[in-house]
């Protein structure tokens, strides 16, 4: 029986486990080509054309289940058009402080925006209604940042929407409880283009393990959902 986007991800908020005390329950959502690339142009360019309208619809449904979304600054700078459902807190991580304040990310509802940065990040242009969270010296210290997101911002369900740099850091720390992946029926080719998660490779024995807990197909696109194996996420 064929499914439509309306049939999928309708009960995510109830299905997600309660958050631990020290961080939100955290999911990542990305779209990639068959050969694993997560950009359709150069790194840093917009990617709205990678997934179909079904992918966009399902992205909204995952966002609707979350209380906050987190992205890296390169993703924030990649498009002025990134927008979210009204209820979502919008968190962007930056070391440089170089953010695009003339974007829907900040303009739609500045009071829901949070700049997550280091103790030393110089910020110019943050809207006065937005919050600034400083955690860490050389880079954001994710352990204390996640604790602050949980405790100070009151977020128990967090959705991370890339890019690869941020995803890799959170997966390495076992902070990603679920991974959503849309496989777009496309091949990009190219060496050095970003994939789902970047960073130094893990050793063979230390690869992160996930269970495939849901799979849906709409036309030529596949929607995969994984849950992290082990410790509190069996
Ligand atoms: N296919 C998909 O589903 C998908 C989803 C999202 C994004 N994308 C694409 O992916 C590309 C961007 O991905 P990306 O991997 O290059 O970058 P990214 O993860 O979006 O952002 C990287 C930036 O985030 C900040 N950052 C990362 N770790 C940090 C830390 N520990 N502390 C403080 N700041 C930190 C830094 O910002 P500063 O440079 O400001 O210091 C860093 O340069 C774009 O082309 C975007 O369109 C694709």
Can you describe what's shown?
By secondary structure, the chain is of the alpha/beta class. It has one domain: Dihydrofolate Reductase, subunit A, CATH 3.40.430.10. It is built from 6 helices and 9 strands, in the order H-E-H-E-H-E-H-E-E-H-E-H-E-E-E. The chain has a 9-stranded mixed β-sheet with strand order 5-4-3-2-6-1-7-9-8. A hairpin with a 2-residue loop joins strand 8 and strand 9. The radius of gyration is 17 Å and the shape is globular. The relative contact order is 0.22. The mean pLDDT is 96. Bound molecules: NADP nicotinamide-adenine-dinucleotide phosphate.
List keywords for this structure.
nine-stranded mixed β-sheet, Dihydrofolate Reductase, subunit A, binds NADP nicotinamide-adenine-dinucleotide phosphate, 234 residues, alpha/beta
Ligand list: NADP nicotinamide-adenine-dinucleotide phosphate
- CATH-level-4 superfamily name: Dihydrofolate Reductase, subunit A
Number of helices: 6
Overall tally of structural domains:
1
The residue fraction in helices comes out at 10-25%
* Total E-strand runs: 9
Tertiary shape: globular
Brief write-up:
20% of the residues lie in helices and 24% in strands.
Set down the secondary structure blueprint.
Layout lengths: L11 H4 L9 E9 L19 H13 L2 E5 H6 L10 E5 L10 H4 L5 E5 L13 E4 L7 H10 L5 E4 L3 H9 L5 E7 L25 E9 L2 E8 L6
Parallel strand pairs: 1-6, 1-7, 2-3, 2-6, 3-4, 4-5
Antiparallel strand pairs: 7-9, 8-9
NADP nicotinamide-adenine-dinucleotide phosphate binds next to strand 1, strand 2, helix 3 and helix 6.
